[in-house]
Predict the 3D structure of the following.
Amino acid sequence: MSASCLSDCVGPLELRPGAWPGRLRWLALGIALLAIWYAGLPWLARLLLTVLVLVLAMRRRRYPEGIRQLQFSPAEVSGACHDGRVFACAPPFACLVSPHWVSFRSNCGWLQVYADQLDADSFRRLRQVLWLQRQ
């Protein structure tokens, strides 16, 4: 597909809450707890580390992260994060593209958009914009 097909701007789009970030957090929590309990540490150390991991996981859950609003074209990807930060990036994009998510580097660091956060057509077009103009 040529860049001329993508000449119009898409957005601003409000992203829906994605299911994948929550699933990945639960998986990471499970792996961390298994590592703590099977590491051969004394019981007191296991208990303290378990409490620490659970407190950190609950604290992290309070603050939503990721993208709230997204606007993209072949010339720029921009938008706003949940915490109020505004981001923008221009080609060539530093990105990772898969069928289920895209990750790109912006002035706010690496940001992810999952397929269930956008409608299928918008997600496909975002993938095309990032893939065709990647580094």
